[in-house]
Request: fold
Amino acid sequence: GQNIDQPTEMTATEGAIVQINCTYQTSGFNGLFWYQQHAGEAPTFLSYNVLDGLEEKGRFSSFLSRSKGYSYLLLKELQMKDSASYLCAVRARSNTGFQKLVFGTGTRLLVSP
Amino acid sequence: GAVVSQHPSRVICKSGTSVKIECRSLDFQATTMFWYRQFPKQSLMLMATSNEGSKATYEQGVEKDKFLINHASLTLSTLTVTSAHPEDSSFYICSASSGTPNSGNTIYFGEGSWLTVV
Reply:
């Protein structure tokens, strides 16, 4: 099975930088995703890492260390609209060859003025 | 536009009845579809993985006979909640994969379905 852990809640102020961590334990690792989700809506894709290192996309960056089972999502120049839940998800290949995407506990981020 | 369509977006049913939720991939063939359940202020919990050409693989603790999943074709998967009870009330969301295992954003989510059992 998988264990995927994130902090439950974080708060930050507008214009700041926030880092959301995700630790995981899994077998058959085949990529880590970050999604943003507003209440009552479907998750929105933010980033994908399958190799170690940093992926940057505008105000959002994601980092992966496979040996440590660790990832983080970095949000820069925070805006009020960034208040949402951020979900870390791990894709893993089972021993039957099929893949599944399992989500972490999710982090609720509140951005204040 | 949406590449995965989920229907209905909201449904209210009486306790003891069954309700079916559909998930369609609109412009690609989905070799794998996932069904999730989400309670308020919680993350998505994987219920089952449906792979084209085989039966759904259910996660531990998910009742197969209660949550019937059928990957009817490469563009349609259905989740039927049988003999629904109020505790089944939740947000159900599907996702579909176009089957390129090493590509990041080939997993698309439906809009989700709010089920309320009264």
